[in-house]
Structures are given as C-alpha cells and as structure tokens.
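Lecture 7, part B: from sequences to assemblies.

Below are the input chains for today's worked example.
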Amino acid sequence: MYRLALQTSTEYAEKTEIASPWLISHAWVIPLLMVLSFVIILLFGKRMPKRGAEVGITAVGAAFVMSCITVFQWIQHVDKSLEGEGGSALSGFGKSFAFSTPGESSVAPITQTWDWWSNGLIKFTAGIQIDGLAVMMLFVVTFISLLVHVYSTAYMEHDTRYTYFYAALSLFTGSMLVLVVADNSLMLLAGWELVGVCSFMLIGHWWEEKPNSSAAIKAFLTTRTGDIGLLLGVIVTFFAAGQTFNLTEINEAALAGRGGHTIWLVGASLLLMGIIGKSGQFPLHTWLPDAMAGPTPVSALIHAATMVVAGVYLGGRLYGVFWQGFSIGDGGMNPMAIIGAITIIVGALLAFVQDDIKKVLAYSTISQLGYMVMGLGVGAWVGAIFHLFTHAFFKALLFLGAGSISHSGSHHSFDMKKDMGGLRKFMPITFATFMIGSAALAGVVPLAGFWSKDEILATAGQSGFHFFQIVGIAGAVLTAAYMTRCIYLTFFGEYRGHHHPHESPKAITVPLIILAVFSTVAGLANAAPLGIEKFVEYVEPRQAFPPIVVPEFEGILAAVSVMAVLLSVGVCSYLWFRKDQLGPFKGLTQRNAAARGGYTFLVNKYYLDVLYTDVVVGGIKGPLARSAYWFNQNILDGVVNGIGRGAPAIGRGLYKYVDQGTVDSAYNGLAKETGAAGGLLRRLQSGQVQRYALLIVIAIAIFSIALILAK
Amino acid sequence: MVAQNVAFWIIAIAMVLSAIGVVRTSNVVHAALYLVIVLAGAAAQYILLAAEFVAWVQVLIYIGAVVILFLFGIMLTRSPMGDLDLDNSQRMPAFVASLALVGTLTALLVDAFGNSKVVIDAPTKTSVLSSDIFRLYIVPFEAVSILLLAALVGAIVLARRD
Amino acid sequence: MILNQFLILAAVLFCIGIYGVLVRRNGVLVLMSIELMLNAVNLNLIAFSAYLQETSGQIFVLFVITIAAAEVGVGLAIILLLFRNFRSPDLDQAQQLKG
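Predicted structure of the full complex, as structure tokens:
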C-alpha cells in the first residue's frame, strides 16, 4: 500500500520539489486548508459556477497531495534516523523487506508546539505531532474524503443544499484532521467534538423529514454520552500524568505506572467510554444504523475515514494508558477486548435481518470496529490500526457502491427485497467493485481484509487470548454469510423494482474502481508471510509505546480462517442459489418458534432501543414525573388536606363517644387549629421572592451561628 | 499612618450611614443619591489601599454609568416620588437576620485575622495590572466580554415591546 | 491600618445590602441593595490584594465591576417588564406562585 502511495508522492515531490521536511513539521496546514475551504464555500459558494464543489474538491485534493508528501517524508525520516543510529539499514521503500524490531531503536515523532492560552499560571499549548500513525491517518482521511467529494458531485447533483453539503463535508474532514495531528489531548478533544457536530449536520442533511432529524439527534446524543467519558478521561490523565495534556508524556507516565495502577485504570475506563460512544461499540452502537439517514457519501465518510474511526484512533494514540490501565500485557480478560468481542458478534448477527442494504453495511461496520477495539484490547496494536487502514478502503467502496445502486438502479431506495435484485446485468462496474469490496470485507485471500484480520487473530493467539481468537474467526464466518445474502438479494435473481436500472455516471464509477484497486492491494502493506511489514516498520511508534507482540505468521490459523470463510460463503450461496431458495431453511421462521423468536429478537435489535428510549428515558422521566405528582397529590396536599380532613374525622369520633356538650367546643377548637396550621404552611408558599430570600438568609444566619458555637 | 486611619474612619462612617440611607429612605431618588456616596466612598477606600486604577474604574463605571442606569430605571418605571412607605412587611425579621449575620461575620473575622496589618509600599502600577490581565487572565477577560455582549442582547430582547 | 477594619466595614455594608434586598418593595431599590453587596465584596478583594501584595484581587474586582454592569442592565430590563405587566415596579405584585 505504501508503495502505491509513495509512487504518486514521489512524482509530486519531483514535480513540485517539496521533498524537504518542511511540510511534515508544518502539517497543520492540512487541516487549516480544509477549514479555510469550509469558510470560503460558506461565504462565496452559492455564487460560484459549480456551487462551491470546486473549492471543496481543490482543497481536499491539495490536502491529499500534501498528505502523500508527509507519508513520503516520514518514511525517509524513519530510514534516516535508523541509519544514523546504525540500526537496520533501510535504503528506501519498496525494495527493502527488512524491518526493525521496535524498541531497539527510537524514532521520535516530529512535533511542534505553540502557546495557546494561559489561565492564571497554567499554560495550555497547541501543537502537532506527526508520526507513523498520524501520517497513515492523514493519508486515509484525505484519500477517502477526496473520493467522496468527487462522488458527491454526481450523487448530490440535484440537492437543494448542495453548497451547504460541501461546506459541511470540508469542515468534517478538517476536524478529523485536527484530531489526527493533535499532540495534546485537549486539541484531540476539540477535534473529536467538532467531528461530532459535523456528523450531526450531515446525518440530518435532509432534516425536513422527521426520521432524519431524529437520527441526527440520536447520533449526537448517543455519542455525547460517551464523550462525557472522554472529557473526564482527559481530565484524569491530565492529573495522573503530572498536569500535562501532551499525548506522548501521558503515554510515558502511564507506562511508567506513575501514581499507581488504579488511576490509570480509571482513566482507561473513562477513555474507553469515549471509544464505545464514538466507534459504535456495544452497547452504544444503536446510533450508527440510524445514521444511515444521511446522504450515502456521508455514510461512506463516517464509516470509513472519519467519526467512527476517531475512537479507534484514540485507542491507538493513547495506547500506553490502555496498556497500563487494563494490564493488557498480562494476557487476562479486559473490558476493551470483551467489548470488542461482543460487538463483533452482536453487529454481525444484526446484519442478517436487515432489508436495507445500507443497514447491512452499517452493522457490518459495527462488527468490524469491534475487531479493531478487540485488537487493541488483546495487544494487537499493529493489527487494529492496520485493520482500520484496510477497512477504510473496502467499507468506503461498499457504501459508495450501495449509493451507486440507489442512484441508478433502484430509484433512491435502499430496500434489497423490494427494489433490487438482478442488478448485475445492468450495473456491471458497480457489481464487480461491490464483489471485490465484499470479498475484502469477508477476508478472502489475498484481498485487504484477510491480512489485517489475520494479523489481529495471530496476535491474539500468541499473546494468550485464545478465546478472542475464536470469536474473531466466528465473526469472519458470520461476515461472509451476511455479505453473501446481501449480494444475492441485490445483484442476483430477478429485478424486483419498477424502474429502469442503468450504470452510474463516471463521477461515481471512477471512485469505485479506484477503491476496488486499493481494497485489493492495501493488504500488501503489511503482509507478514510475504515479509512485508511496513506497518511495524513505519507506523508503529518507537517511543512511549508498550512492548507489544509482533506475531509470527501462522499458516494453520490463516488456512483455518480462510477455509471457514469460504465454507460459509459456499453454504450460504448453495442455500440461496437453489431453485427453492434456502431449501430446508425456507420459511423456518414461520415454522419454528425458536427461530421466529430469534428473528424477532434480532429485528428488534436486541430491544436495545426499547431499553434506551422506553426503559431508561421513560423509566426516569415517567416515574419521576409520576412520583413528583404523587408527592404533590398525596404528601403536600395530604399534609394540608389531611389535617383538614383528619380533624373532622377525629371530631366525629369524639362526637360519637364523648358527651355532646363537650364535643361542640372541642370540635370547633380542632377545626380552628387545623385552619391555623394550614394557614401557617400556606404562608411559607407565599409566591414572593423576598419571602423566600428571607427564609434563606435566616437559615444561613442560624447555620453560621450554630457553626461558631460548635467551634 | 494616622492620616490614613483618620481618612478611613471618616469615609467608613459616611459609607455606612449612606448605605443605611439607601435601604431606609422613603424617596427613591434619594436612595440613588445615597448610593453615589457609598460608591464614591468605596473608590476612596480603594485609593487608600493603593488600587488606583480600580478606584477610577469604580468612579467611571459605577458612578458614571450604573447610577445613571438606575435613574433611568426609576424614571421608566414611574416609581412614585415623595415620601411613601417603600418597605414590605418583613422589616423586623430581616433586621434580626442581618444583625445576626453581621455579628457572626465580625466574630469570624476577628478570630481569623486578628490584628494583621496591611502594609502598603507603593500604588499598584496600571501597567502591571494590564499585563496580568492580557497575559494570565486573557481567557476570563474574553469570556467576560462575551458575557457583556450576551447581557446587552438579553436586555434588549427583554425590554423591547413587540 | 489593620486588615480587619476593611473586612468588617465590608461585612457591615454587605449585611445592610441584605437587609435592603429583603425589605425593599421597589425592584429598582432591590437592585441598588444588590450593588451595595457587590461593593462590599469588591472592598474585600481589594483589601486582600493589598494584604497579600498580589494583583489578582484587583483583576477580579475589574471583572466583578463588568459583570455588575451587565447585571444591572439585565435586571432593569426585567423590572421594566414587570412594570409593564403589573403597572407597578413593586416586587410583591408578582406572586403567581402563591400556594
């Protein structure tokens, strides 16, 4: 993969002669460019000939070129530093298959810091930190974003808010880039929140329809739930690391175990909450499928390059904290791996019962993000980040493919059962690229997904996490099965729609083809059995980084997972392609109560939404209101009324048993007393502010006198 | 030192008497004028404490702007002029509560600070203040400016007729 | 000069302000009493600033003065609104929350 990126970047470097390390130490221009583009589109976009799209595409194109140059410069920087240290000589990319073991040499990230602001005596800095992880993310984000920008010219052509869409897209990309280049957790938090705001704007792009705006609000609020964890995590790590926001210093402090293990456990758990929210992990994954309400290019961007990968990126960036907090090195169970493993299975199972093609892909993303988080949890840092990298290409491909189908094949519908079927004859390019994307997702050799998934599984096994290895293979089997179902429903059988499907325009197919090429070859960037380990070499940090296991390639494991995947594809295809479709399983949900129950359970998404809206929100709102009402009716009124009502009752009792002559006066007296008591209580509730203020002041005076006397 | 103490006591007595005037007078405009004396007295105390810049800010903003605002408020609400009963019915309990608070506060202060002396070498330079504001407290400064803007907008929204 | 003479003066002014807030019916007069309380706090801050030989107290007084100005603006707007609704600036007119 790097080889490809680099060839383009060398060309640019030769043409423009910017091979000096200038760009890498001034990488802040890349996000700045996108933000500027946002401002320009917002101010002048409507009056431009292409309604602002040209500004966005130019900006993101330039950002992409610059990101390629930073990739190139970073590789040179690593090579040079290693040579200078007398480490393994790496005389350039491409031809060298040797790699260095991390730890034996140190290549520091390139950083630059400015004073941002200060409050009292605490200084806050802003800065960039460029290392392998950052340049990899820069490349992925700008690359996917460029393709999405181009694709949208055709897809969003007739949209009423076309200019606004491009402005938001630019800001979305820009905020993700801010997050990526940040050298301190505060800037990272700022980028993180900006990404959340932009996703809100874009998911709710067609806000005129209620479900869309609700989806946007849901996405925003659900991720915010996790963001609280992130905010608290940033604060905890700030103090735990000795009052610093600097990411490297936090990692160093965490690995040294400064201040004890517990504080890092707290910090890591809080940060994990942020990851769960943003990266759609169980149990906060419910916003992701609903986020499909946004335009398809946005879904591609959200699922491949921005937003959801922000969480995984955070996990990779502050890995020292997680390593220390969750004791990942010890090989025991830890929350991160467990959450990831649950998410893999939960997401994959849900993908089976969706009729909406985008929702299948959304649940697939959830499942794949589970792989990444589980990878981080089992110490497979390289595998997780590598999977993020490959997943970006094939998931963007699949989403853009789904968009192509709805744009030209099914008349803006995403329903596989109603409006699709048999599309392979009408849309050959979309079909071919979608097949490649699905195969890469399922992990078919030698496409991208295979290498990264294998890396995670191998590391899990060799670090002693055998359980998670099995979960991973099970997830791969499920993935292959639901993608087979999805492809069958979309491309095979008879066309069930009522329109005239045709192939999409070039602005849509060209990005698809480019992404298909990348989905095929991206895995070669770190193909361990072929001796290429570019990720270990260039992406993995060498400073402030835990001693992770670099796995040996396991032929048997790879063979098992590939066989499992192929078997799954085979069985599913056999079942679907039979004349009587699904054969013995057809109508299973109608015949078998257990199967029907399972189906209903899945269709209702494990009832999580019900849990959140009805049980949690309703549970808090309803009873709270009810109990307040009850309190009002029974206690407050009861005190006043009860005295009034109870007194006559007593009075009647007295009347019955006591001599009438004495009763008269007693009864009247009691009634008067209750009236007075009620009046006294009522006077407290005067409705006058100053009366309330007087009560407060009297209370303060009494308390302060009491405190002084107590002393 | 003696001169300063004499000045302090004169000003302090004037301030307390005027403050009582603010809360006791039966004429609304008189209350505003008594308030001017208290505010001016506070400015004088700031000068005694060598805080020149703050003292002048006090004169400009409080006496110059805030009191004018009050007079406008009196005018716009057509508060009845002349001798009227301006108090509500809770005079007694309020007096007792305030007195209790003065007592406790004084007791606490005497206990905590005793005879600690204030030593003043030289007046605080405005340049020192300004560099502190714009270096150390720039963020609160900006926040306050946003707050002023918000208050401005809020006041207009509340007070306009539509 | 001892520190306490300023602090006790401030305490007295503060409590006179409290008394005013509690007993005055006219909303404008209540606001004036609040200004008395704010000034008492400012006097405290300046006194401590001089006592500790530190400028931050004075800076906070500047902030308080700014905020007090904003508060008077909004407060008078509210009283104006009250006046429009009840034809009187008296606070005890507003007792819709009476139980």
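Note for the exam: The first helix of chain C runs from residue 3 to 23. Keep this in mind when comparing with the next example.
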